[in-house]
Amino acid sequence: MELSPIQNKIYDIRGYKVMLDFDLAGMYGIETKRLKEAVKRNLKRFDGEDFMFELTKHEWNNLRSQIATSSWGGSRYQPFAFTELGVAMLSSVLNSDTAIEINKGIMRAFVVVRHLLFNQPVDEMKELRNEVKGLKQYIEEVFTDQNDINEDTRIQLELINETLAELQTKNKALDKPRSQIGFNAPQYK
After folding, report:
1. Residues 12 and 101 in one domain
2. Average pLDDT, stretch 35-61?
3. Is pLDDT of 68 > 60?
4. What is the DSSP secondary structure assignment for residue 70, as one 8-state letter?
5. Domain containing 18: what range?
6. What's residue 80's pLDDT?
């Protein structure tokens, strides 16, 4: 039995990985109504949300939009959601060879999903985020260093400007007209 079609029918609702009654009924080759009747006759086996729960209208409407099912027809009741434990319990309620074989495949699919959850492949987006974060930190450090260099350069330029201003003041004092020293030849007109 191929696991992929089963894995596509496992949903995350209320923090549980669950399968819905109509999907299970389809796999078992029975009507959803018959599956629900068998469950209701054996409710003690499914006591507790960790085995099975009925979806609220809000949960069902939200899920229906995700799995693109028709809003026409269907049951008057919300679907039952069976956890891995609940699906295992179904094998004791639906005691046919088909149900037993289907349950084996479903249990394997739940194991694969659990394995994927705990051994998730490397998330490329997470890696990219970490690289971008590292680059941002590096750039901030470079800019901080650059600002330190710029501050040092600014101080040095101020000192150079002060020194130039002092030299210009001294030059102006030295640029006064000097009286000539030495022999002055008379000038004739």
Report:
1. yes
2. 89
3. no
4. -
5. 4-118
6. 92
> Of 14, 16, 15, 34, whose CA–CA distance to 25 is shortest?
34
Give the tokens for residue 75: 């049951």
Give 70-82 pLDDT, tens digit per residue: 444 455 678 999 9
Strands of the sheet containing 52-54, edge to edge, are 11-13, 16-20, 80-82, 52-54
Beta carbons within 8 Å of 35's beta carbon, 6+ residues apart? 21, 24, 25, 28, 90, 94
* 21 & 63 share domain: yes
- CA dist 161 and 154 (Å) reads 10
pLDDT of 28 above 70: yes
> How far is 110 from 3, CA to CA, in rounded Å?
9
pTM of the prediction? 0.54
145 lies in some domain? yes
CA-CA distance, 13 to 82, in Å (whole number)?
A: 10
- Given the structure tokens 């492949």, which residue do they identify? 121
36, 22 in Cβ contact below 8 A?
Answer: no
- Is residue 136 in a domain? yes
- The tokens for 142 are 């470079």
Domains contained in the chain, number:
2
Q: Is 17 helix (H, G, I), strand (E, B) or coil?
A: strand
Q: How much is the pLDDT for 72?
A: 44
Residues 61 and 142 in one domain: no
